[in-house]
Fold these 3 entries.
Entry 1:
Amino acid sequence: MGQLYQRGRIWWVKYYVNGRPVRESAGTEKEKEAGRFLKTREGAAAKGEPVKPRTDRVRYEEAEANLRQHYEATKARDLAEYDRRVAHLTRVFSGRRIADIGQVEADAYVLRRQEQGVAGATIRRELGTLTKMLRLAYKNGKLLRLPLLDKPKEGPPREGFFERAPYEAVRRRLAVDLQAAVTIAYTFGWRMQSEVLALERRQLDLEAGTLRLDPGQTKNDEGRVVYLTPELKTLLGAQVARVEALQRRLGRIVPFLFPRLGKGLRGGQRRGDFRKAWASACRAAGVPGMHRHDFRRTAVRNMVNLGVPERVAMKVTGHKTRAVFDRYHIVSPADLQEATRKLAGTIPGTITPGAVKSSAQVSDIPQIGG
């Protein structure tokens, strides 16, 4: 049998779950409301239903920890990427009750991030993480109402991509193992951090000339297999030789295709990010501000321009939807100039340079409106 009692002016309840007493604040100064709360708790206990925590007590930190644990258990998200996004959310929402987070709070967060010069696409992804956090809390019974948060517009897609000469200039200024890594990204459009640098030696078959990504290793959870170009086969053969030399030096197996090649304590570990080395190489090559993610746009454009069927190109790069693939198919000024050159040679009646040789010939051309 449950009971009501007061601590100060607040009513508390005592009830039993599986024979064990549970004491909980009803969060009210009114005895009747506390009585209704007690009946709800007793009813859930009698039916064997889980007794849900008070939603007005659940704070951001708990919801964030639950989402991270969910991603860790399901492998549905790269945790390093998750930690980067959630760090900005934590600075703003730390200590808040999740029941108090709605559109007003989301809009304030957007304005704050915009004042910091953050791109709309980045803010959208951060709010997407917050939405997933609240959705999981709702699913777990820690939130009674799921707010629908509007996000800022995506904005026009970034149009950065590499022409061959600047790409070669940047690649030459990187360490030899990174030269092989960026060649994979340039050729196939694979994501650098989560796909290329995460490769293990078992995923490379030099004899068959293939490189594969396992299911669950990619953003869309689908595996991929590509066939190596002669250039990549040479570069990756040299990379395997470097890893084997590292193994002999360390006296142990190194599973990664791109490990740290140094002699220190981290030698043989998976190579981490190389943002600083990349930025330095871009500045030295005269193309500051280029992103490694530009390789995805570059690979899409190159394959389409070479006549690779779009469904095959999507399979290589890992774009699951046509809409996203189209955002990456960027047209450059050189593409437009090439289109004009092709039109000049194929449209009947088109006058190409050098076709008009004399004023007499010009006078023979019919004039419109004369």
Entry 2:
Amino acid sequence: MVGVVIEIDDPTDPRVADFFHLNDPELRRRQEAEGEGLLVAEGTLVIRQLLQSPYGVRSLLLTTRGLADLAADLEGLDVPIHLVTQPAMTAVTGFHFHRGALAAADRRPPTGLDEVIAAADLLVVVEGVNDNENLGALFRNAAAFGAGGVVLDRTSADPLYRRSIRVSMGQTLRLPFARVASAPAAIADLRAAGFEVLALTPDAGAEDVGEVAARPRQAVVVGAEGPGLTAAALAAVDRRVRIPMAMGVDSLNVATAAAVALSRLARRVDRSG
């Protein structure tokens, strides 16, 4: 049975402060810098992923439709459930949100690189991907092809930003990730731990990724669209690999490219679900 549902009529009610001005990224960054440490999941599908993740839910903001959709999932969950009309949802969040369900959760202490390495045999290393939607899609693809974690350099976007979570369909909440100072240093650590590290590049001189055999432990390194990987990252890897493409097409979206590469290397993926 769903716990106590609190009806909210005033969009400035401090009880729903977790959801104020969600369309203001600068405010969210300031809150994170000041240690508030919140993340927000939107939509019923993503909230279901949140409820199965290690992140502790703080509160929910739901319309009648959202409450009906999530009723079974919220049984036994002892957190404030705030019920609002659609106009009030818009007034609270600062934008016209149609999905009817928002959840706020506490962030967790950062996961260390050693912990991510220990739990995976296929990893993705990300350098300079600062677009939230690209990063979210990359996480979704990494999860789909059995990667056990993601390693992000300090210049990459926040995987727990609302848009990243949404585009990943909640996989940024489920897939372990570590933040590192630099991709080349992390690559060195991965190689020391027994990973074969492959840099994905459009360079015509790179090996065809389809001809690279899966090994017990591998990591795929991807960079931002346009500049690609830094020279230091390329120099640090074991091998450079490419995706063969039709004449006149020189590259793919970073998330798509990672998906193609991971599909060639994926193994031990449980497809029973």
Entry 3:
Amino acid sequence: MEGWKTTFVYNWIRCDDYFKTIRESLAKDSDLLARPITDHDVTEAKAWRANALERAIRKEREHATTQRQSVMSWLKNGGMQEEELDSQLSRCHPNTCDWLRDNSKASNWLKCGQDHKVLWLKGKPGSGKDAPICL
């Protein structure tokens, strides 16, 4: 559940900037429609929209850069990931992966060299695919 909450908040913050620009644009258009419009008003409105779009794009790029830097920093900190994996591994239920060891295809796969050790797990969200394999 926490993952969905984080995803929603992250995406909402990103969309909120665009919604704010749209709301401001609608307010400006409403003001223009409430009075006679001149060529100057149209030119000014076009310039405002162009600047608003440029600001939104710049803000999105800054946000993406910050996000990328945050992810790269997290990935470079391998010790934290190892600690998390060790913590999860210590919480495995006894006999957690017996089915994998008892399966002949899986056993053959485990006997392969390091170059061939790729395992693709698929299943419903939240079904435990990200749980550590206790082999």
